[in-house]
Every structure is written in structure tokens, then in C-alpha cells.
Amino acid sequence: MSKEQKEKNSDNSSADEKKDTRKSQKEAGENFSFLQETVKTKKKSGKSRVMQYIRNILYGIIFGGFACCSFFALKPWAEEIFYHDETKVTIPVEDGDTAQDDDSQDDADDSQLSTETAAEHYEEMLDSMYSIAEKAEKSVVIVQATEKGDWTTETMNLKQSSGVIVGENSREILVLTDALICKEATHWKVTFDGKEKSDAALKKQDKNRNIAVFSIDKKNVSDATQKRIEVATFGNSNTCKRGQVVIALGYIFGYDDGLSYGVISSKSQEAVFDDSQCQVLSTNISLAEGGTGILVNLKGEVLGLIRSDILKDTGSRTANALAISDLKEVLEMLLNGESIPYLGAYGSAVTEEISEQQNIPIGVYITNVQSDSPAMDAGIQHGDIIQEIKGMTVTGTASYTKAIEKCTVGEIIKVRGQRRGSNGYVEVTYNVTIGSKE
User: Fold this and answer.
1) pTM attached to this predicted model
2) Domain 137-228, CATH homologous superfamily name and number
3) Which of 45-49, 190-194, 361-365 is the most confident on average?
4) Which of 90, 163, 383, 427 has the least C-beta neighbours within 10 A?
């Protein structure tokens, strides 16, 4: 059989098979469309999958960022609207029985050591200050006054005040104290070192400044006491500063042997007297009503005389002292038995600045004239300007006081100044007989 015949027979055979197949499908009742589509899943490459993952991550980051921003932006508003509970405050309770590790124990030991060291230093400082106070107390005495001389229980301690030994010679011991103890009293005793009592006699007093000097005959003081006591050393109160440590001694708490430590809290106040003024050293040390004492520095030097009547109008219950430097000249006169010159008029300084601003002469503007005083007897009046005393120029309160202290009791001096008249200030001259206030 030829090749063409074989191919022809093969084609005929295939056609017959297809015909038989369509026939069998038709017989089975099945219908098929002319075209049948098959969807095949597209195979993705590895690069496409990576890019898809990256896009998903970026979408997640962007979504998360917006969510966080929205959360924090809306949180305060949401809490204010929906959340009203207050945060509960708790205080951690420390368990004293809790064991500490080695480091904590070391820190505790160091802290305890530091505290103990500080306490030891503080105790040493107090011991040192007490030694200074003990030495200074050798100069401190108690002066007692009575109207009678029998010193019975009923009459004893009518009044008492702190005093300080300020001088001695071959015959007597001299004690400085508050002059208020002289009022309505005729007999006095001085207690030395809290032990021995001896009779005392009033030597001189200045009622203007309320200070007095008493004399104790050495014949009435035992040798042992004379060896124990010491004459006080005066310091320079002008160089004191606020915050400076000081020691108060004497009758400051209502009993004889009072002792206290403190600081100078102020130097701005002044005690004003008839002819002068005195700086006040204010402290933070408590003072009993009627208390008196001595203020000393850490060298044991006397800085001031503590009195309860200083700045009493302010209601202060702390120790205030008259600065000793402002009293030295007056004290020297009292120790030598001299009377303190007294004029009985005082005022305020007219400086160059005040003079130019208010057209007032430079000097001391008199603001107070005591009744029955030498100043009043001479005709000095409130408002007068004092410019010269006994030939000494007066430009302020310091020079005014110094000029009066240079005078002698009973001396007649010339006081020059100016007084305002209808046509302005005119010069005036006064003849003043210097007195004393004892």
C-alpha cells in the first residue's frame, strides 16, 4: 500500500472516531459550548514577592504612625471627658527589718561615721565656747539691793542686777551695773563668782544712760576670791558684724548664773538719751523680763551691757545690749568718780544734703528739750539748730555728744546756733550752766 493511501486511511479512521465521540456525547444528553476557557494561575517571580512584602510593611508603618499620632492627640481630651479618677498618692513604707546588702550597709556606716564626726566637732566647739564663757564669768558679778541693812529673808533680793568688774586699784574693786538698782535702795551687796558676798558702795551713776559704778573695799574680800576674779577686757563693738557669735552671761534668765550662745542679729537700732545716743547690739538670745547681763565675743571681751529696757517699745523679748564702745568715755569718768555732764536737749543731724534740700543750716536740729534741764533754763527750744558748743563745731549728733562730754559739771559755757524767724534763720547764743543727772 502506497504512502498516500496509508495517510488517507488514517484520516478516515480519525474522522470516524470523532464522529463516534460526538454521537456518544449527544446520546448522554450533555451540552458543551463551542469554546471552553481555562484560567491558569499566573506564576509570580521571586522579585515580585519581595516588592509586595515591602509595600505591605510601608503600609503598616504609615497606618501605625497615624494611629499613634491620633492616640496621643486625643488622649488628653478623652481622659478629660471619660476619665475622672484622681491618681492615688502613696508613701512608701520603709521596713526597718529589711536586710541590706553589703553596699547599702557600707553607705549606712559612712553616713553614721559622718554624723558622729559632725557631732564630735559640734561638741568640741561647744566645749571651746564654754571654756571662753567660764573665763569671762570671772569678771561677772551679781549686785543685790535692799532698803534695809539687815539682809533678812524678807528684805533680801529686793532688786538684783548683773554687773561686770571693770577696774581695781590697791584699795577697791569697781563694778559696772544697771543704775535702776540704785532707785529706792540704801544698801548693796556684790556676789563674786557665785560664792562670796561683800558689801558695796555707790561710787557714781548716770541716770541719763542708766549705768552706775559700785566700789567694793578689798578688805572685805577674801584673798581666795581676789585670786579667782578678773577685771574684764573691753572689745571694740564698732567692728561687730551681723551673724557674729556672742555669749550672754549673768542674770539673763531670772537666775544668777545664766549662760547662752547666739549671734548678733542687728546693729541698726539706737538707744536715744537726753544728750546722746548709743548703738544697740541686738541678738537672738532669749531674755527674761527684767533680765540683765554681759555680752562677750569669742575672745571673752565685753561687747555690751544687756538690759531689758532697751527697745522695750518694740516688744522684743531677746537680749539687746548697749554697745560698749559708745560708753567708754562716760565709763572712764564714772570710774574716776567724776559726774557726767548733762545738757538735757537732743535732736537729729542736719547734713549738707538735708541743708540744701530744705534750706536749713547745718548742725543738730533740736527735737527734744527735757523739763528743768540746763538747756531749758538757758532758753533752748524745739526747732533750734545747735552749731557750736564751748567753741567746738557741731555738725552732727556724734560731735554734739562729744562736745558736751568735754564740758565740766557746773561750768558755764556758750552754745551758739540759729533759730527760725519771720525772715528766716537768725543767729542765737545761749549761756548754759552744765549740770549732771545723778
Assistant:
1) 0.71
2) Trypsin-like serine proteases (2.40.10.10)
3) 361-365
4) 90
